[in-house]
């Protein structure tokens, strides 16, 4: 899985690398902010849930209870590192450590999972899906102010949405994914700054593919 995320990162993080043809708007800067994890203290862990429904289980299994945890640790030899664990059905596995100077790794997990899910469900190429997502980021979007509930607190946040297939000329071949949308909610008041990421086959319909990663809180790393 890590190699897949590296491929996605190489493709998408170029959006923030100063490429002249890319318009780095305010929404994109929040999503790909390389300072995100500096808002998480060493010894702290941020926790997320990851769910996925609406795809033929023979093509892609659903996710009902996956937990993603990102812990910030520090080693005298390598400095700050991000340790990522995925827990599902009582079984956990760890990804290779990320640099503490990188952005929030749940973004890469989300984009890689969504790319794979949409490709499996639609029968399309994952490279085509990644390219259309990249194009949507390049086109930019507007930021919308919103408020979110986390525990007993209401905090201010911003939401941005992208339609990767908006300019596709032959939408009929995309079937249920013709109106595919991904959205991001970020907040400076949340450690790691990513609050929620959602992918929908069609935002106008409750049925269909839905994938979501949601921030659920932060705690201290157990020694």
What do these coordinates show?
It contains four helices and ten strands; from the N terminus they run H-H-E-E-E-E-E-H-H-E-E-E-E-E. It has 223 residues and is α+β, with helices and mostly antiparallel strands. The protein has a domain at 2-39 and 103-220.
Task: Give the helix/strand layout.
Blueprint: H1 2-12, H2 26-31, E1 44-53, E2 63-75, E3 79-88, E4 91-94, E5 98-99, H3 106-122, H4 126-139, E6 144-150, E7 153-162, E8 181-186, E9 194-200, E10 210-220
Antiparallel strand pairs: 1-2, 1-10, 2-3, 3-4, 3-5, 6-7, 7-8, 8-9, 9-10
Helix pairs in contact: 1-3, 3-4
User: Overall 3D geometry?
Assistant: globular
Number of helices: 4
Report the sheet-strand fraction: 35-45%
Q: Which stretches are poorly predicted, pLDDT < 50 over at least 5 residues?
A: 1-8, 15-23
Topology, number of strands: 10
Radius of gyration: 17 Å
Summarize the helix and strand pattern as letters. HHEEEEEHHEEEEE
Structural class: alpha+beta
The major beta sheet can be summarized as: 10 strands, antiparallel
> Helical content, roughly?
10-25%
Query: Could you tell me the mean pLDDT?
Result: 86
Our measurement of the CA-to-CA distance between the termini, rounded to an integer number of angstroms, reads 27 Å
């Amino acid at each position: 899985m890590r190699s897949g995320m590296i491929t996605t990162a190489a493709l998408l993080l170029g959006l923030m690398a100063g490429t002249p043809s890319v318009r780095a708007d305010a929404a994109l800067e929040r999503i790909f902010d390389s300072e995100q994890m500096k808002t998480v203290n060493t010894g702290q862990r941020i926790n997320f849930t990851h769910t996925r429904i609406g795809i033929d289980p023979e093509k892609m299994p659903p996710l009902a209870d996956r937990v993603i945890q990102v812990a910030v640790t520090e080693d005298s030899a390598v400095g700050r590192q991000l340790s990522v664990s995925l827990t599902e059905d009582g079984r956990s596995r760890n990804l290779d450590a990320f640099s503490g100077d990188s952005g929030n790794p749940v973004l890469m997990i989300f984009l890689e999972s969504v790319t794979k899910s949409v490709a499996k469900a639609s029968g399309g190429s994952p490279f085509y899906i990644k390219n259309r997502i990249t194009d949507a980021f390049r086109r930019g979007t507007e930021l919308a102010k919103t408020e979110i509930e986390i525990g007993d607190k209401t905090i201010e946040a911003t939401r941005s949405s992208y339609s990767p297939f908006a300019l596709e000329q032959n939408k009929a071949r995309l079937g249920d994914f013709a109106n595919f949308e991904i959205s991001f909610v970020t907040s400076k008041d949340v450690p790691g700054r990513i609050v929620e990421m959602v992918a929908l086959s069609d935002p106008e319909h409750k049925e269909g593919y839905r994938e979501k990663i949601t921030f659920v809180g932060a705690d201290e790393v157990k020694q």
